[in-house]
């Protein structure tokens, strides 16, 4: 039994430091690297790729709306054409940095507001899928499970994986409970680790209403931007290691 | 006898239009495409690459210091490491856009203040040469003739071509007369066309002091941002066409 | 009988030129000056204020979402607190430039997507009204007539004027016909001039369905970014001049 | 006997946190607030001004070259006209935020590379002095002691104070030992506190060569961006408090 843990990385910017990249890197298998639109800059991207290379972590681009002040978390009324071009640009920027360090790009995962909008808007998801496909058909699109992103990836003929969230509650339909609702985020790290175990071993998760629902988790998203988050990742890793579950980037299994 | 004419292109930005891209494109053989740091944005880069594809023009990246307000014309005290990373980033961004349109990148030519600083500072020229070499050793570096850029390209083992300027005066040493001096820029389009002819056919140019000096011109830079400039390019083209000189991107001859 | 004509100005950016500021300035009475978030830069703002000073034009700030690439025309999910702070910042930047040229600020008019969102969202309109009021209670807020902006200005106790558009069609309810609908923009400059005359003299306008509807037009917005637009402004001016209508900034009448 | 301690503040940006503003604020008398060009954003500027208001700290603008990635620490070849306009813009942005919180601006201190270049280049220092003077003649310009900034302020007729650095070594001529030289920065916090005491009580400082040199210190710059720096400020404060030296913003004494 195999699983991939993905985590956002390289979100520092200029003189500003963000996240626990050095601490988290050894415990995840894939990373999503900011490309300068919501966070990071070329020097910091290079630093992040060198760190990933050292730890043999699979690398993905983490494109965003152009919004440094808002960290890419604010919805923007960009057109699909604009999103397609912005996504190509950001993938390329990271690709070249990988190239200069002789490592490969594995995937693309949209960031923040762009991810959330793509999950429900097929035109936005389609723009991203086409962008990925047009740059390199070998790249995976990381999609929110059961979302419009999956639909768009299929349509564009792009490789994709479905993603589940370690610390988020799910509805009976297997979709994410919106962050605005109570209980949307699970803070108990033991419970989170158990839920990840259930996702991986049984492809099931207990919904917020207590119902067992099927879930596809080809990669599981964990967060690395708080000390607590680092503890959570280590615990997940420890628990699943004990059960002989293999941690491996999804790009290797396929 | 063959020659390449290169011209800066794709310098529009968002809603702002700059340059006579459509008018100039049919008359040049290589273009230097702005990558978003001094001009352009992903959507406009894509538009420019489509235009270049239509006209079968060879494409180069035109990286710059990050300075939109100053159009990359202001010197910046960036470190060689910062310049190296910024250059890689910009090459990659344009590479991906070329990839999405199934065309190739031929070269990299630094823009504005970065070009001028690289011409005299071997550390800056070296950072650019290493950046190019690390992304794709097949890419040419466009260097000011006889400058530190040539030296840096050789040292890094990067492919390069030496560039001459159609409308600039030269010293007895074969270097450019600084723009601050009278007579530095030649405005008479007939004279410019004749000088280009001399560069191509005889590898010679008359210096500002009236001395014949040898010149290496593997590519000749022309400007396309004024109506007068467009006329100049057409005249150069007409004159050299008459003499059966072949216009061809330098990447094809080598 | 008096009227104010307002027009967006100072939308150039760095090396990029936009609009016919010099041509339009003599024919309008109030201008809305871009503040660096969707267009312009400090040097260009200073140039614009000097031009306005020369022509004795009343000056307003034209704050926007932070979106240079999209020219402030893309909706952004910024919070009211973010919009309030961004608006204060932009008003202040222009205020200081006016101060350095010893002229006064008359008003604030939100730009593009911010204007459109404020017209229908009382929380956004309220953030703008509070921002204006907190910087200088003498400043007018330019509001789309009958919109949530008027409501917000009243609530905040801010001075305001209601604005009508010279070249836009109106519904029977006196609201703007959305740009997406056919006939939303009126291109016949004679018809536009007549409609402005009707707004000013009779406070009435013929709706897109042919019904006469009352309209409040304390200032009328004209565009100055195309040669045709310049002609339109001159024609409006000529027609109303003949009828002895006085052109005067709204800040002077009150 | 009175002294002012000034410290850079409000250097966070969007989601990025920098500095120990809350810890340092109670121990200094004047702050230099980033204005969005090298750090900060409107929301964070507002937050900083509210904090300063709570602690009754005197407020200054901290304008910079436009360089977020380089934190304003990279020299830029901007013209005096560009620097003048950029400075006016940034002062105004902070002025409006102060206005909205009903507090006053006391001073302007250029940041980073702009400060260093102004210290030795009278044209740059002059552009800043004129900018300050043109916005509000009541504002002080904070100048490196004995530098071209002092000269420029006098010439422009601007109010100014001369600044000394708590933790920097001085030459026999009373100028700063360049950071590139060994011993340029003093790390021993007891020694730093003693030197500040000497500056304030005796207007003298021991140079790096052991010579006593006269020094003008109308305000003393301390740093607040490391935990060690916070300790240093507290120690300076404690030592001078014991000696009944009064801490007061320079704007109040004059």
Number of strands of chain A: 11
Put simply, the count of helices of chain A is 9
Oligomeric status: homotetramer
Tell me the number of structural domains of chain A.
Answer: 1
Detail the topology: elements first, then pairings.
The structure is a homotetramer of 254-residue chains.
Chain A: E1 2-3, E2 5-9, H1 21-24, E3 30-34, H2 42-54, E4 58-62, H3 80-100, E5 105-108, H4 112-120, H5 122-135, E6 140-144, H6 148-156, E7 159-165, H7 189-202, E8 204-206, E9 212-214, E10 219-222, H8 227-242, E11 246-247, H9 250-253
Helix pairs in contact in A: 2-3, 3-5, 4-5, 5-6, 7-8
Task: Report what the structure shows.
Four copies of one chain form a homotetramer. Helix content of chain A is 41%, strand content 18%. Chain A has nine helices and eleven strands. Chain A has one domain: Glycoside hydrolase/deacetylase (TIM Barrel, Alpha-Beta Barrel), CATH 3.20.20.370. Chain A has 254 residues and is an alpha/beta fold. In chain A, helix 2 crosses helix 3 and helix 3 runs parallel beside helix 5. The longest helix of chain A is centred in the middle third of the chain and has 21 residues. The radius of gyration of chain A is 17 Å and the shape is globular. The mean pLDDT of chain A is 96. In chain A, helix 1 links the parallel strand 2 and strand 3. A seven-stranded parallel β-barrel of chain A has the order 2-3-4-5-6-7-10, surrounded by five helices. The two termini of chain A are 14 Å apart. The interface between C and D is medium-sized, with 26 and 26 residues.
